[in-house]
Amino acid sequence: MKQMIRQVPIPIAGVMLGLTALGNLLQGYSEAARGFCGALAALFGVLLLLKFCLFREQVKQEMENPVIASVSATIFMSVMQLSTYAFPYIGKAAVLVWGLAVAGHLCLILWYTKRFLLRFRLEEVFPTCFVTYVGIIVGSITSATFGMEAVGRWLFWFGFCAYGIMFPVISCRYLRRIPVAEAAAPLFCIYTAPMSLSLTGYLAVMEHPSLTFVLALEILAQALYGMVLTRLPRFLKLPFYPSYASFTFPFVITAFALKKTLERFAAAGIAVPAACSWLLAAETAAAVLLVSYTVARFILHLSGLCRRQKTAEAAESGFRKKTLRLSGKRGIIQLSE
């Protein structure tokens, strides 16, 4: 079990984030579904916590990889989301957890900037940089639960401005056709997340949002979603990699942003085409399927690690028994002589 925990990939935090976001997306349909998503996300979080506690040196080595380091921000983003799940039960303690997660994410931004961006190399730039810098907007989305909208507004503007800076830089990497390893190819799916995340954060913390601005962001978000969908079939054909986590949160937050946009327009008394409701249903279904598929692949991966560990232990045990038997036979031969 300990060796299995050692091999738990840090990107599983991205699956945690996708599950917590999916629970919020499905809350209007079923509280039970939300609770299940939160519980499964918490279980993955426990596995990660055990890895961080038991194998600190290994975690330090893994964090030297810029992709893993940037993806690790999903840990704090997941905790922010989970704190809203726990708030009705633990009250102020959840506010403290949320604040610590926001502070931890900001510290990660400072560390990542110093460790990687100050020695900038375009070859090391991936869409995961969006996670580090724009992902802090999850703090904006969750701030309303704790009455911290003022903090949420600052987090939104920081993340949104960072997005404006990061988008052309990351896009330049792909436009220049710099080779991407197969294991990192699914990370392209992250492209659909930041615009929708920004839109959701904006709606969460602004008392009087500009509907024109909201519409502009939603159109751009759907365009990016469409761009990612054109490549998704190719990514789904790849063998399993931890980067499969990119199939979760980006698709969930896109559907969630559309849902919040339609609700805002409805509240303003603006009629929207019926096709928009069908589009929301399709994107919600796609999010459920992709998250379910990804969770299943990660569980199969972890169970495979367990089986291999048991096989290795059984082989080692058999080898020891055989060695002991041979040693015993040699001892009998020596005594008879």
Question: Any overview of this molecule?
Answer:
The chain has one domain: Alpha/alpha barrel (Glycosyltransferase), CATH 1.50.10.150. Helices cover 77% and strands 0% of the residues. With 337 residues, the chain is mainly α. The chain has helices at 2-6, 12-26, 31-54, 56-62, 66-71, 73-90, 92-115, 128-134, 138-143, 149-175, 193-205, 211-236, 249-267, 274-336. It contains 14 helices and no strands. The mean pLDDT is 90. Helix 2 packs across helix 6, helix 3 (31-54) crosses helix 6 and helix 8 (128-134) packs antiparallel against helix 10 (149-175).
Write the layout of secondary structure elements.
Blueprint: H1 2-6, H2 12-26, H3 31-54, H4 56-62, H5 66-71, H6 73-90, H7 92-115, H8 128-134, H9 138-143, H10 149-175, H11 193-205, H12 211-236, H13 249-267, H14 274-336
Helix pairs in contact: 2-3, 2-6, 2-13, 2-14, 3-6, 6-7, 8-10, 10-11, 11-12, 11-13, 12-13, 13-14
Characteristic key phrases:
about 325 residues; Glycosyltransferase; about 0% strand
Q: Element order, helices and strands?
A: HHHHHHHHHHHHHH
CATH superfamily: Voltage-dependent anion channel
What's the number of domains? 1
Could you tell me the radius of gyration in angstroms?
Answer: 23 Å
CATH architecture: Alpha/alpha barrel
Major beta-sheet overview? none
CATH class descriptor:
Mainly Alpha
Average residue pLDDT = 90
Fraction of residues in helices? over 70%
Structural class: mainly alpha
Residue ranges: pLDDT <50 for 5 or more in a row?
none
The general outline is: globular
**If you consult CATH, what is the topology?**
Glycosyltransferase
Give the terminus-to-terminus CA distance. Answer: 46 Å
